[in-house]
Amino acid sequence: MSEQPPSGRRERKKAATRQKIADTALRLFLERGYDAVGIRDVAAEADVAVTTVFSHFAAKEALVFERDADVERRLARAVTDRAPGAPLVPALRQEMHALVRHCLAVEAAPVWRMIDASPALREYEGSMRLRHAETLAAALAAEPGAPRGATACRALARFVVDAFALAREADDPETAVDDIFRMVEAAWEAAGAGVPVRPVT
Q1: DSSP code of residue 34
Q2: 161-164 long-range contacts, CB within 8 A, separation 24+
Q3: Cα(41)–Cα(161) distance, integer angstroms
Q4: Among the ranges given (74-88, 145-159, 186-200), the one the predictor scored with the smallest mean pLDDT
Q5: What distance in Å separates the CA atoms of residue 105 and residue 55, rounded to the nearest whole number?
Q6: pLDDT tens-digit readout, 162-187
């Protein structure tokens, strides 16, 4: 799941620097171990200043989850930018399938082993999922026919976001996503929501 390409020379240069830092950090983490590599090591290897690293990434953990903001935007846009007349839950299910396929690709396996072995990375991932869920809950709450009250939307958003972690642990992640979203759809209806279809304008 890649971000939209930046427009403008300055933005492209900034994005290229950010990607270089992230790629360098991940390579060092996998080669030496996450705990053995510091921000200074990453900066030196990427040939940038430490302040440059921090201008792109707020914390060392963020170097591992460099697509964090893109995933958060895509989850919200699965709700807000879906085609006119398109139902909501299938749009979210499609986005989750794409996320699961991307993150469970063979080349991603060493990264997830590193994350699973690091308490700091697991904690960061948990806080990241909570933030994604809050953003998704706000998008859900703005939908026509959404349940009244913030609690239902927040609960459903948490369920959607946690589908990734549950699918990652399943023997058949694709089937797990479908099973989870059948429950999400039932929960949405049980919360008193109308059929969440994007209005045609």
Answers
A1: G
A2: 161/75, 161/129, 161/132, 161/133, 161/136, 162/129, 162/133, 163/96, 164/96, 164/99, 164/100, 164/103, 164/129
A3: 33
A4: 186-200
A5: 30
A6: 999 999 999 999 999 999 999 988 88
Angle (CA) 150 3 184, round 5°:
35
pLDDT at position 150: 79
Three-state secondary structure call for residue 197: strand
Q: What is the pTM of this model?
A: 0.84
Q: Read off φ and ψ for residue 196, nearest 5 degrees.
A: -80, 85
Q: Which contacts of 28-36 are long-range, i.e. CB under 8 A and separated by 24 or more positions?
A: 29/63, 29/64, 29/114, 30/110, 30/111, 30/114, 34/64, 34/114, 34/117, 34/118, 34/120, 34/121, 35/118
| 37-83 pLDDT, tens digit each | 999 999 999 999 999 999 999 999 999 999 999 999 999 999 999 88
Query: DSSP assignment of 87-122, as one string?
Result: BHHHHHHHHHHHHHHHHTSGGGHHHHHHHHH-HHHH
Give 87's strand partners: 197
